[in-house]
């Protein structure tokens, strides 16, 4: 499993995923609808989500290797996202999920974003959301062992 995942997330409280797809002239990899439920007992969602993943050709990739995939979605998509954000009907985020499982592995550390990706994000009016998770044993000490 790669230490990094990147996806584009569009969230709207007024548009269903089908309308978002129509406006973007693009299809999501995953979506949820306003009023849908995660589980039958869950409350209805108050917003829709439209998600597109940047998936590498091989299993593991760093952000700088995934960057061309996002930029490759094209300036037309970035412009359509920017117009959607400008309408006030949605917010857009580029989400980077980083999972560090080996503190000594340099491939699991650092995040570099190039100028092309930053420019694409600017045109898309997308915020950057970085979720970081570090899975690390603390030398066998438990909470009760701390003096």
Highlighted features:
4 helices, alpha+beta, five-stranded mixed beta sheet, DUF4279 domain-containing protein, disordered C terminus, 25% strand, 147 residues, single chain, DUF4279
How would you describe this protein?
This protein is 27% helix and 25% strand. It contains four helices and five strands, in the order βαββααβαβ. The protein has a five-stranded mixed beta sheet. The chain is globular and about 50 Å long. The termini are far apart. Mean pLDDT is 86; it is low at 141-147. This is DUF4279 domain-containing protein. InterPro entries: DUF4279 (IPR025459).
Q: In oligomeric terms, what are we looking at?
A: single chain
- Counting helices, strands and paired strands, the structural category is alpha+beta
Described by the principal axes of the CA atoms, the overall outline is: globular
Number of strands: 5
Overall average pLDDT: 86
List low-confidence stretches: 141-147
* Helical residues, percent: 25-40%
Distance between the termini: 37 Å
Q: What is the number of helices?
A: 4
Strand content: 25-35%
- What Rg is obtained from the alpha carbons, in whole angstroms? 18 Å
Spatial ordering of strands, largest sheet: 2-3-1-4-5
What is the makeup of the main sheet? 5 strands, mixed
H and E order: EHEEHHEHE
Region (Disordered): 21-48
Biased composition (Basic and acidic residues): 21-30
Organism: Streptomyces sp. R35
Protein name: DUF4279 domain-containing protein
């Amino acid at each position: 499993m790669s230490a990094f995942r990147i996806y584009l997330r569009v969230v709207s409280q007024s548009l269903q995923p089908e309308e978002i797809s129509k406006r973007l002239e693009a299809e999501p990899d995953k979506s949820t609808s306003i009023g849908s439920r995660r589980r039958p007992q869950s409350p209805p969602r108050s917003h829709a989500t439209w998600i597109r993943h940047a998936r590498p050709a091989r299993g593991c990739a760093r952000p700088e290797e995934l960057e061309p995939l996002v930029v490759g979605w094209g300036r037309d998509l970035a412009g359509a996202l920017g117009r959607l954000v400008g309408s006030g009907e949605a917010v857009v985020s580029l989400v980077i999920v980083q999972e560090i499982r080996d503190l000594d592995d340099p491939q699991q550390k650092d995040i570099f974003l190039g100028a092309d990706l930053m420019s694409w994000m600017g045109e898309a009016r997308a915020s950057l959301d970085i979720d970081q998770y570090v899975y690390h044993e603390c030398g066998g000490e438990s909470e009760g062992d701390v003096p």
